Predict the 3D structure of the following.
Amino acid sequence: MGEDAKKLAIVGGGAAGLAAAIAAGERARAIGVPLDVVVFERDDRVGRSILATGNGRCNFSNEYPHADDYHSGDFVGGAFGALLASVSETASDRDLKIIRDNGHVVNAFFYKHGLMWRVEDDGRQYPRTNKASTVVDVLRRAARNVGVREACEREVAAIDPPRGHGGQFTLRMADGTLERADAVIVACGGRALAALGACGLPVVAQRPMLGPLRCAETAETRELDNIRVRCDVSLVRKGERVAGERGELMFRKYGVSGICVFNLSRFAQAGDTLRIDFLQSGSIDDAVHYLYARRKLLAGTFGDGVTCEDMTRGLLLPRVADVVLKRVGMAAGDRFEKADVEKLARVLTAFDLTVEGMGDETICQVRRGGLDVGAFDCATMEAKELPGLYATGEALDVDGPCGGYNLHWAWSSGMLAGRSAAERLLQPLESGLRVATPARCGEDVR
Ligand SMILES: Cc1cc2nc3c(=O)[nH]c(=O)nc-3n(C[C@H](O)[C@H](O)[C@H](O)COP(=O)(O)OP(=O)(O)OC[C@H]3O[C@@H](n4cnc5c(N)ncnc54)[C@H](O)[C@@H]3O)c2cc1C
């Protein structure tokens, strides 16, 4: 790289940082002007945060990542639209076909770089190898291909803005050295943002999200610890259902966990009721109807003496049955009469716990909060008041549900920032470059 090449510094070599670096390198190559792209990573290797995702399998994206499902959805929709417009504007016919065939830009990117994947329930995409390391390998190859430099064990402690027009950013490294760059992409994720700060740009207070919920600990929660059940679960606030999920829930001594609970945690507030419907029946009437029919069936099978245990055996795990029957005020050996149907139906469809807050924060997948999206242009990811500074991924106040949404955002915002930064730095050097038409915030385009 020549001495006079512009330099783009990327702070963080996780999902967003690698996507940004590759996109910037590819854009520079397409423009035909050299760009020095350096990824500063505090860890001893890039991509380590990706390895832990999806239980080591990396649910890297989703077939249908609708912007409405994200926190800061308007901003996300604008960014998705801008990325598609930007990529399409400069894509070859081959690349346009790849985008069309693969559904969205993120898939087209991975397809183009050789990743094979399969789709599980709800559009969740996993690498075909079932290993997150495959995703990292593909990204590192793509980065090498366009000359991206990895600077590992180089933690950025602070970013100083340029002193005057046309000046460079200064990166203060944790080891006391300084690095200069013509543009900077903040891709440090959610956890590290507070330590880094970002040139005084507004930050929305952060809190862990997409994790277990803490509920009042009782003899029941202790009894049910570590038991998994398939159920419907909803959050009820002042008598109104505010969110609901279907899936596998795991009881913990301190509350509840599982993907369905993680998703509910995005909406939960202390004091909410977490309502578990073990029957997944949808309504108390359906549950009553079902239990009458079940009692009749079992009476036909066993003779007259149907017990509570008969009613719950084959339907619930024994420890769950014990706790449920205690709530109903009955014991396993009690005869189960017609008059008991409604009482049991009520507990089975509305096994209520009271939410106190987030559970074990160390296993939360994302942080809500971060750099205020209002300070950034969703068409480029550039700070409105600080040209040349970009933010991506979880560093921004954006989060989505489980299912590949958060990585999808990291790749998308990273690619958009990388392309935008490359164009900002190289455009003046390249006459006749066409500029992509940005989408407006709020436009829901994938
Ligand atoms: C256990 C777990 C499982 C998850 N599973 C999934 C999943 O299957 N699908 C999904 O979509 N999402 C998943 N997520 C969420 C997803 O991992 C994140 O949303 C995503 O990684 C965010 O990408 P990012 O690049 O913004 O941040 P990160 O991936 O966190 O990357 C930030 C990088 O910056 C580096 N860094 C930080 N500060 C500095 C600094 N000052 N100087 C230099 N380097 C720095 C970090 O070391 C890191 O490498 C999971 C999260 C967790 C915790």
The chain has two domains: 6-208+366-429, 211-364. Residues 432-446 have pLDDT under 50 and may be disordered.
